[in-house]
Inverse folding.
């Protein structure tokens, strides 16, 4: 019953573009009251439906702190709520919680909740929504991602980004990040993709190291030539030293500069 009403509300608000903080006050206030009643009554399945809807509406008006507050309220019973929830609500909760973890800078926790959401996917739309965020997260963590996964989910541009990151192709990466900036800002992955630059640079420099026969030391001029070739722009030596130092500091590569 609750699910049917709330699904209809989400659809109509979205379709009519009436989703503003002002006209959601009454709906959110009602949901908060219902949330309190269901929590006290220990009706956990219904509680999961209301909680997921609250997250949906709060995210729509960027009131993320309200979601964090709700999570603190249910902290002792979070596992019980997930156990009682249907797949639709459990998927949504894991997805929204992953976003909150990302805002807090906890990429590992972000990945953990996205992986849990992946187990609950029921439609291609959910799969596309999930991978649009999970792929950049995995790239940022330096984990292997197949470009074909992005293409199969209808995320062709993201697949190109994955391929560019793997190959260390700075020019394609930068051009696509600039071209699709508006779309990726709206989906919330733009800055996450920006963080993948470190992984891209590591992959590029690793190629140089392998091609040179994996030597103990590597001249900076070799890295400079590779960077210039990949980006199409001549890089000043001081900037290159800063990039390499940053990669060493992040433990993406090992070594010292001398």
């Amino acid at each position: 019953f609750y699910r049917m009403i709330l699904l209809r509300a989400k659809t109509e608000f979205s379709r009519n573009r009436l989703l503003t903080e002002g006209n959601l006050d009454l709906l959110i206030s009602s949901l908060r009251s219902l949330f309190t009643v269901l929590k006290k009554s220990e009706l956990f399945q219904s509680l999961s439906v209301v909680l997921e809807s609250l997250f949906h509406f709060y995210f729509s008006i960027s009131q993320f702190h309200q979601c964090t507050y709700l999570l603190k309220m249910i902290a002792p019973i979070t596992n019980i709520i997930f156990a009682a929830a249907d797949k639709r609500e459990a998927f949504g909760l894991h997805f929204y919680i992953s976003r909150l973890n990302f805002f807090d800078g906890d990429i590992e926790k972000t990945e953990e909740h996205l992986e849990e959401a992946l187990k609950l996917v029921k439609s291609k739309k959910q799969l596309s929504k999930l991978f649009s965020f999970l792929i950049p997260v995995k790239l940022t963590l330096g984990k292997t991602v197949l470009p074909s996964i992005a293409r199969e989910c209808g995320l062709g541009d993201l697949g190109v980004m994955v391929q560019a990151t793997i190959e260390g192709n700075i020019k394609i990466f930068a051009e696509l990040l600039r071209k699709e900036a508006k779309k990726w800002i709206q989906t919330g992955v733009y800055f996450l993709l920006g963080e993948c630059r470190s992984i891209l640079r590591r992959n590029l420099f690793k190629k140089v190291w392998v091609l040179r026969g994996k030597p103990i030391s590597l001249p900076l001029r070799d890295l400079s030539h590779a960077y210039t070739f990949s980006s199409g722009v001549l890089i000043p030596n001081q900037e290159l030293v800063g990039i390499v130092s940053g990669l060493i500091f992040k433990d993406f590569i090992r070594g010292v500069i001398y």
Notes: The CA atoms of residues 168 and 253 lie 14 Å apart.
